[in-house]
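Quick one, T. Sequence first:
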Amino acid sequence: MSAGIVDIATAKPGRTIDNDHFTSIGLTDEWIRRRSGIASRSWLPDETSLAEVAAEACTPIVTAMADSSEIGALIVVSTSSPQRVPGIAQKVAQLVGLGSSVLTFDMNAACCGFVYGLVTGLSLCDAGSARSVLLCSVEAMSRMVDRTDRQTACIFADGAAAVLLADRPEFEGFRQVAGCDGAQEALMRELDGGGIHLDGMQVYDRAVRRMTESAQYLFDHGPAPTVVVGHQANGRILEQVRNFTTHLGVPFVNRIEHSGNTSSATIPLAFAEELTAGSLPPAGRLGAVAYGAGEAWGGVSVAYRVGL
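Structure tokens:
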């Protein structure tokens, strides 16, 4: 018996920002769609806390459980949390009604955060340290970007998604690959004065290569995924990864058009949208692959059974 994904929920509160919003900085709908594949994205109100949004994503999962005390750990993944001490995981636990005995902590691995969170949560379950783990990615990237920056303002977006990890008799063990290269920290970074620096061409090339390699590793070492969801960084990156992984013979998800780049939350948001739309069966194996600042990259092949 091994752990996998047994529930998923999302939250995208706030207002929808379409591409016409960026005409004031000289960007057109056609240009944004062609360069990024994005037509609209969600931005949170400034007064909404990330803990509240994370709790909105987690609450349906906790409410559906017969005994929420079975959740032994809560991992909150965020690139955009402005609060370092205390972390927001403890507040989220309180807001969703988890008991005081739950292990809670924040994680930041930028856009690769959900993959790193999966590795950590699944490992806790398989080691017997937790009967189940609630993993939530929550982001307000719109608060980090310089909204006058033509390169980044139209790309990043906000939202949250949570998954419940737990053991099931039918699940095969997860497979993971991950890595990092601190020498590449300058490629993507938060600027001291605000905003995000992005070395577009280098990031494009490295993201495509790292996610393609991670996907190939998961198939070579099995159990093979039945669907691959890449970090929804940019539409052109996604289509290039899709082209390089076509031979794997499984669906590759691109849901960036109406979500934008929500950093660590992109994979679970895209996965949830596919499940809700009926584009994927309610049981299978998710291959999650990501590349992010740091630099960090990785992939996880994990069983899922949702809504059955």
